[in-house]
Amino acid sequence: MQHYENKTLPPVKRENWNHPARYRVSPGLADAFNVALELSLPLILTGEAGTGKTQFAHHVADRFGMGQALVFNAKTTSVATDLFYRYQAVKHFQYIQSKREQEKEIKNTGDFIEYQALGLAIRNAQEKGTRSVVLIDEIDKAPRDFPNDILNELEGLRFDVPELETSFQAPQELRPVIILTSNSEKNLPAPFLRRCVFYNIDFPDEKELYEIIRLKLGAEEMEQGRLNRLIEEFDAIRKVAAQANTKKPATAELISWLAVLQQLGFDVDTLGTPGVDKKTLMQSYTVLAKSDELRQALKKRIDDWG
């Protein structure tokens, strides 16, 4: 695996791990999703980063043949209208000035309207008769007023575009499936939470991790005993991270770590023994350790093996 030294790049495989069809849905998550569908309410997901909150929306879109999920990434500067459309006012003004100077035909205002995730879903439902999955990712990053500002629109699935003097509304039978995620960096307003179905994705136990890995990497990739040994080691690493008061690696990082170990040809049977290949193991830890404190703690741990 000397790609840097050899100036070659490995084949791209990561998209296979993250293919929506390889996502494992827990019974609890499936139940919460079904309740949200039954009540026509948004589903909001919380949980550790890397536990699959965002990927669930893509899985739903794939599972029900609804094309690509339409994604809105919340930011600290987001306002309610950003979820529906953005009007490029400055660009429009500059364009008008330029065309007037050239005495050429001026485009319509609509050419400077960019429809965003929920706006595009509502417009497509009204004009094309298609239903979409909308992902509002990391809504807790948005200003506190943002969730309350979009309450009526989330319920009525209607929005206005004053610049065009027009409105759009999704037919009831084509309501977009709305999934929101939050990393719980701050509390969401109570009125907003009352109008959502809530589910927290817990970190998987060892049995669930085994099933996730089977789906992501394939059942034939690794013998069960060795895979369980790696899962135990991963759990120990998470405990070391907790003791070091630093970010614990999550499910997504576990998948990456296992893939790296396979590529490096690491001998799983040497884990916890003096014969372990410390250099290779430390190389693989770059996937798991996101702080120097954790890297040093893991180095000390494997040094103690002898």
Account of the 3D structure:
This protein has 306 residues and is α/β, with parallel strands linked by helices. The chain has two domains: 27-201, Rossmann fold; 204-303. It has helices at 3-6, 14-17, 27-39, 53-63, 89-102, 117-127, 145-149, 151-156, 190-194, 206-217, 224-243, 251-264, 278-284, 292-303, and strands at residues 43-47, 70-73, 85-87, 113-115, 133-137, 158-161, 166-169, 177-181, 197-201. The strands form three sheets. The protein has a five-stranded parallel β-sheet with strand order 2-5-8-1-9, sandwiched between helices. A two-stranded antiparallel ribbon has the order 3-4. Strands 6-7 form a two-stranded antiparallel sheet. Strand 6 (158-161) and strand 7 (166-169) form a beta hairpin. The protein is elongated. The mean pLDDT is 88.
The CATH superfamily of the largest domain bears the name P-loop containing nucleotide triphosphate hydrolases
CATH class of the largest domain, named: Alpha Beta
- Average pLDDT for all residues: 88
How does the major sheet shape up?
5 strands, parallel
Q: In angstroms, what is the radius of gyration? A: 24 Å
CATH architecture of the largest domain: 3-Layer(aba) Sandwich
Q: How many β-strand stretches?
A: 9
Give the helices and strands as they follow along the chain: HHHEHEEHEHEHHEEEHEHHHHH
The side-by-side strand order for the widest beta sheet comes to: 2-5-8-1-9
Low-confidence regions: none
Please, how many helices? 14
What would you call the shape?
A: elongated
Report the CATH topology name of the largest domain. Rossmann fold
**Helical proportion?**
40-55%
Secondary structure class reads: alpha/beta
How many structurally independent domains? 2
Question: Termini separation (Å)?
Answer: 26 Å
* Beta-strand fraction estimate: 5-15%
